Amino acid sequence: LAGVGCKDYDDDIKEINNKIEASDGKLASLEEQLNSLKVTISTLEQADKDLQQKINEQEKAISSATGDIEQLE
After folding, report:
1. Sign of CA dihedral 16, 18, 21, 25
2. What is the C-alpha to C-alpha distance for residues 43 and 57, in angstroms, rounded to an integer?
């Protein structure tokens, strides 16, 4: 009779579990980075709106000043 043995899979299972745990940590880090980028995008969008409002105000001031100059001429 030949003896048939089963391989001990404990080490393989531990290795897979370690890889899963490492992947979970990387995923959490990626989620934090994504959330940080979302905040940055939101901040930049608000800054863009504020800048556009200031540009519009300056354009109105320039238009008014141009009209005043034309009247003085």
Report:
1. negative
2. 21
What element of type H or E holds 3?
none
Please name the residue that has the structure tokens 């556009």.
52
Q: What percent of the chain clears pLDDT 90, i.e. is strictly above it?
A: 53
Count of residues in the chain: 73
For 42-59, the pLDDT digits (tens) are 999 999 999 999 999 999
**Amino acid (one-letter) located at 46:** Q
Distances (CA, A) of 49 to 45, 46, 52: 6, 5, 5
Taking the CA of residue 51 as centre, how many other CA atoms within 13 Å lie in the half-sphere pointing to its CB? 6
Q: Is 52 helix (H, G, I), strand (E, B) or coil?
A: helix
Full-model pTM: 0.58
